[in-house]
Amino acid sequence: MRPLRSHLGRAVEIEEKQAAKSVALSELGEGEWGVISHLDLPAEIQNQLAHMGFMPEAPVQALRRAPAGDPTVYSIDFAEVALRQETARLIQVIPGEPGLVTADDAEKAR
Amino acid sequence: MSCHPSGLGTVAEPEPAEPGAFAAHRAKGKVRTVVLIGPPNCGKSTLFNRLTGLRQKVANYPGVTVEQHSGRMNGIGRRDLTLIDLPGVYSLNNTSEDARVAIDVLHGNMPGTPPPDAVLLVLDALHLQRQLMLASPILALGLPTLLLLNMSDLLAARGGKIDSLALAQELRCPVALISASHGTNIDTIANFLARAGEPVEASGNAPVATLPVLQNPVSCRKWSAQVTEAADYRHPTSPIWTIRLDKILLHRLWGPLAFLAVVIAVFQVVFTLGQPLNEGLGAILTNAGAHAANFLPDNWLRLLLRDGIWNGVQAVLVFLPQILLLFLFIGILEDSGYLARAALIADRLMRSIGLNGKAFIPLLSAYACAVPAIMATRTIENKRDRLATILVAPFMTCSARLPIYTLVIAAFIPNKPILGNLIGLRACVMLSLYILGFLAALATARLLKSSVLKASSAPFILELPQYRWPTLHSLTLRLYDRGKLFLKKAGTIILAVTFILWLLSIVPIHFSGNGGGHFSDLADSVIGRIGHYIEPLIAPLGFNWKIGIGLLSSIVAREVIVGTLGTLYGADPLTQSESLQAALRHDMTLGGAIALVVFFAFAMQCTSTLAVVRRETNSWKWPLAQFCYMSGLAYLAALVTNQLFLHIF
Questions:
Q1: Looking at beta carbons, which residues of chain A come within 8 Å of B129?
Q2: ipTM (interface pTM)
Q3: Residue B27 pLDDT
Q4: Is A82 contained in some domain?
Q5: pTM for the whole thing?
Q6: Considering B172, B174, B199, B474, which has the largest number of Cβ atoms within 10 A of its Cβ?
Q7: Roughly what angle, to the nearest 10 degrees, separates helices B383-392 and B621-648?
Q8: Quick check: A50 contacting B, CB < 8 Å?
């Protein structure tokens, strides 16, 4: 198995390939990927999110919505973090697969 | 300094530099205080327990530890060293109450806590890239630091890898691959600490790790990506079971159904299995008491031991099996990682009352006890949200309410199955009481959040832990600790209160002329007079004077009422030979009995909770308001309940 390269490096490549057409993170459907382009949150919250991996150039996947439809669980930096729609709305992403080995791929590969 | 081959079993040292090299100016003195720091849920407290031999609470969700704990490092034979366990932090500029504690202690700004001489930085090896961001501000402190990559056994098992030697080289600090739960490689910590105190010849130009701009998370993250790449880090495969389980447990339809099924199953087991166990223990205790009493001379000593102490304490002790069962379930929920999912499912509901889904975690742990739950609110960033959660937490049905609920339900509610064999009537009544408390908490929170504690809603940001099997070891320890706590309470507070009550129930002693004396009748005793004095106040609720005394005594702690009733009914010649259940059945109406449990659902009868609310809010204003509000509500609700029963049934 080829070792994974830093996904940050990869994210940059993808960003270059794609036209910068960003949508809100909350718009991603279940299972869809995106690369964060911009965050527009209060500094304190933005800092907290950054330390959980939500920062420009980071790939993120909307994993699943909570039974009530909100919050949504996102896969970021190999961890799962739940955010409400009101927060995810203020995070812009460029939709598209970053081509990483995803959890589902791993399961299929078995 | 020689360098060891990397891998489990050794510590990886950076090549030329000493571990303390970049703290040369500080490392002169002896190491006395060591801190454990790291992100939430990476296993700091598990390691703390191993190093100190103490037993701090550990579970599988972020935010279990909310204050600093210190202990001597007995686990590795270093009594002279104090280890401080800190709440988890994602970064050193967090604002929540628990994170502030950690940051203050780390910086030596915590009054009464000496500044640390060495740091054990714990990171989760499964999430190294992201968690390594925290290493940069910690290394920048310049203290002797040992980086511990916890759960490294899981890293290897799941196909990941790390070259710890290369990592040590990159960071210029020693690195050890450990497993805190299995104790793998823990001796490296002792080795590190033995040398961290040695004076180091400051070579002035010792190589120092290149650190990123600390204030910039993006720069920190890029740095950690570079470092992990240089250390040949390969991320483990995704946790297949967590993904599979979440597909069901967070499913639109199955998720809430599973949640409900879990709740009902807990009630069924705690009640249907717990009840006979309680009765079994009760029979054993009664027999033992009667047997022991036969050996005592028939005088005041026997009265004192049997009526004054044993009756009351035994009445409470019988609830031990049920309480342990409840804690077993709470332990499984907390250790498996389901608790965070429950918070996620409940977020929508919590938002509708103006609270954050994160508040659901303290509220759920309040089912065990409100005191740790109130402490756990420290993880809530928004001050007003936190205060609202503190104020409503005591409405959640804590385990101390279980004895009086069980007693009344067993005495007054027939055990009829409803809905086929799915749930019994008794379990159903119990469930309603739990729901009643929960609704009271929600309504009160709503009221607070729409009036005095109005605030813009704080964001809900919650990291979901991977599911883990609760280990038999940790569950056993939890039950042992809870059991010990319960027995201690029975042996101290409850024993003392029942003894005083018994004493008050026999004085004044009437002396006759020839020097002999006899005890007062219950009704004429001090306690009887107090009881009759307050009876008019509680009679509309359907309570007699004995219940009134029980309510008064239970202001200390809720379980005390069962001890008090045990003592009072045991001292009354009319009911002496009956079981407490039978005595209550003859002495109360159904309406009064239901009113009693409704009263307990709402009332704030717990001095420990009042004390912790005072400490956490830093004023007497809130605990007093809480006490008055809850007692008022309890009185009104009990009044309405009893009157409804009187006029309808």
A1: 6, 77-78
A2: 0.81
A3: 44
A4: yes
A5: 0.83
A6: B174
A7: 40
A8: yes
Q: What is the pLDDT of residues B114-151, one digit of tens each?
A: 999 999 999 999 999 889 999 999 999 889 999 999 99
In the prediction, which pLDDT does B513 show? Answer: 62
Among B235, B243, B462, beta carbon nearest to A78: B235
Smallest Cα distance from B133 to chain A, Å: 7
Measured distance CA(A41)–CA(A43) in Å, rounded? 6
Task: Give Cα B247 to chain centroid, integer Å.
Answer: 29
Q: Rg of chain A over CA atoms, in angstroms?
A: 14
Q: Which residues, listed in sequence order, are joined to residue A38 by a DSSP beta bridge?
A: A92
B70 in Cβ contact with B56 (< 8 Å): no
Q: Taking CB atoms and an 8 Å cut-off, how many pairs form between chains A and B? A: 134
- Which of A44, A51, A57 shows the shortest C-beta gap to B133? A51
A108 in contact with B, Cβ within 8 Å: no
Buried b (16+ CB within 10 A) or exposed e, B177-194: bbbbbeebbbebbbbbbe
Q: Which of A7, A77, A83 sits opposite B461 (nearest CB)?
A: A83
Euclidean distance between CA atoms B463 and A79, whole angstroms = 7
For B91, nearest residue in chain A (alpha carbons): A51
Give the closest of B217, B229, B239 to A55, CB-based.
B217
Domain spans of chain B? 11-230, 485-510+517-648
- A84: Cβ–Cβ under 8 A, 6 or more apart, which residues? A70, A71, B347, B351, B459, B460
Tokens of A92: 């812009």
The CATH number of residue A66's host domain is 2.30.30.90
Please give the helix or strand (H or E) that residue B34 lies within, else none.
Answer: strand B33-37
Show the domain range for A88: 23-97
Q: Are B28 and B80 in contact (CB under 8 A)?
A: no
Q: Which residues does chain A have within 8 Å of residue B242's beta carbon, measured at their own beta carbons?
A: 80
Closest CA to B545 of B490, B501, B607, B495: B501
Phi, psi of A81, deg, nearest 5 = -130, 135
Q: Is residue A109 part of a domain?
A: no
Distance of alpha carbon B129 from alpha carbon B545, whole angstroms: 66
Token representation of residue B525: 């005793």
Fold of domain B11-230 = Rossmann fold (3.40.50)
Enumerate the β-bridge partners of residue B463: A81
Token output for B553: 């005594």
On whether the CB atoms of residues B341 and B246 are closer than 8 A, the answer is yes
How much is the mean pLDDT over chain B?
A: 86
Q: How many domains, chain A?
A: 1
